[in-house]
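R.M. (postdoc): so does anyone remember the format we settled on? I'll just put the structure tokens first.
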């Protein structure tokens, strides 16, 4: 069982602690049997697995923590959920997280009518959600996106290509960022709600990746959506995207923390059970050195993740810096913890299907998506420079 002492930290209320216990019990009972024997090597198998996890999370009521139907998002609950699910199943964490990121612009910036139309269906697991920002020529430089939306009477007409879209092809709801041209660059973008079955929306390709998740390139050919599909103001799309990422980036750190905790637990078990030179591995000081580094990295990551979540929940108007620090540190350090776990497991660490081999594949993408580590450094440095200039 993973170390749960962090739940005593002052970032949490008793409600968070009780929730973490409930979720842990549910995950331990449900996820191992749910994911056992699932086929993650074909698109059809992967899609079916995601649907079964979506139904299970929806039926158990956990998706409501990512998609707030009544009241605001609680980022600590989001992070506790991602950390716990990631310890049990990377795919379960992915399915949960996408419901939140895909509806984040609506939860945070949408009208009551937009919320009523979409949030209950995503919170129940009936509809999968996706966040469509990246393009072939616009990843880290999100403001360079080229997809356009133009007004034609009472509708917006969207044309362009989006890529690296998680849940692409299985989502019933896409939030799509497009250029509406109020100003050049970041100030000329807007966010739109596009139903998955909108005529003119098609999947160009499915993208296979080292830790399989549904991922696709999408084409929008004269996709027509009503005037009220616009989220927030025309020209305010970049703020919608960045404001959503400010909330969800700390949750990516939380998922990385879950992967790191699992790797650490597996390493502690291995060190106690495996004998080398006539004694358990745990008696070798070099092994103890690895375990100590892992313990410090896990706790430091947890402090940054839950600091960012607590700051947002406590009403901070912007947590750009805290969220970027949490994502950068937790994902980079989880990679290092998992790499050390693979080393401690020797040959078993690279055996296909072993727990640490799976974690080694799962963690890598988290240092890239929702703002690569390099982008987080840019964000943190800009915030520090702006802070110094204003003091
Ligand atoms: N919250 C609210 N507003 C924000 C914001 C945030 N977190 N970040 C930027 N803005 C605002 C800025 O304040 C600025 O408006 P003003 O000029 O009125 O102040 C405007 O948006 C443009 O900001 P900036 O000049 O910083 O934009 P850049 O094009 O330089 O982009 C980075 C900055 C690189 C940080 C941004 O593009 C980014 O985060 N890229 C990564 C995107 C990403 O995560 N891609 C993965 C796809 S999602 S899976």
């Amino acid at each position: 069982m993973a170390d749960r002492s962090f739940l005593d930290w002052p970032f949490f209320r008793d409600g968070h602690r009780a929730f973490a216990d409930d979720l842990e019990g549910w995950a331990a009972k449900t996820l191992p049997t749910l994911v056992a024997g699932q086929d993650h090597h074909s698109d059809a198998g992967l899609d079916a697995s995601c649907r079964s996890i979506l139904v299970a999370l929806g039926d158990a009521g956990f998706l409501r923590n990512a998609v707030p139907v009544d009241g605001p998002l609680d980022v600590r609950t989001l992070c506790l959920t991602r950390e716990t699910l990631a310890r049990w199943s990377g795919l379960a964490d992915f399915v949960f997280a996408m419901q939140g990121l895909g509806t984040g612009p609506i939860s945070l910036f949408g009208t009551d009518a937009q919320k009523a139309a979409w949030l209950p269906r995503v919170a129940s697991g009936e509809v999968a959600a996706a966040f469509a920002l990246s393009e072939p020529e616009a990843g880290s430089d999100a403001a360079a996106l080229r997809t356009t939306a133009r007004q034609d009477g009472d509708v917006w007409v969207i044309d362009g290509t989006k890529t690296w879209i998680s849940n692409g092809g299985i989502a019933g709801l896409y939030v799509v960022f497009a250029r509406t041209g109020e100003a050049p660059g970041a100030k000329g973008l807007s966010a739109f709600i596009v139903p998955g079955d909108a005529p003119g929306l098609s999947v160009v390709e499915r993208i296979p990746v080292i830790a399989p998740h549904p991922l696709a390139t999408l084409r929008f050919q004269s996709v027509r959506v009503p005037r009220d599909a616009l989220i927030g103001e025309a020209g305010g799309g970049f703020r919608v995207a960045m404001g959503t990422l400010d909330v969800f980036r700390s949750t990516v750190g939380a998922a990385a923390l879950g992967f790191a905790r699992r790797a650490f637990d597996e390493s502690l078990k291995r060190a106690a059970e495996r004998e080398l030179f006539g004694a358990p591995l745990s008696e070798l000081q070099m092994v103890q050195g690895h375990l100590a580094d892992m313990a410090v990295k896990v706790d430091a990551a947890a402090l940054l993740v839950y600091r960012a979540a607590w700051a947002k929940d406590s009403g901070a108007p912007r947590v750009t810096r805290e969220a970027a620090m949490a994502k950068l540190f937790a994902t980079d350090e989880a990679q290092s913890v998992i790499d050390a776990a693979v080393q401690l497991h020797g040959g078993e660490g690279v055996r296909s299907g072993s727990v640490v081999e799976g974690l080694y594949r799962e963690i890598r993408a988290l240092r890239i998506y929702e703002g690569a580590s390099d982008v987080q450094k840019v964000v943190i440095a800009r915030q520090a420079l702006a802070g110094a200039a204003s003091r």
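R.M.: ...and that's the designed sequence above, right after the tokens. Also worth knowing: The first strand starts at residue 129 and ends at 132. Strands lie at 129-132, 148-152, 155-166, 173-179, 189-195, 201-206, 215-226, 230-231, 275-276, 279-280.
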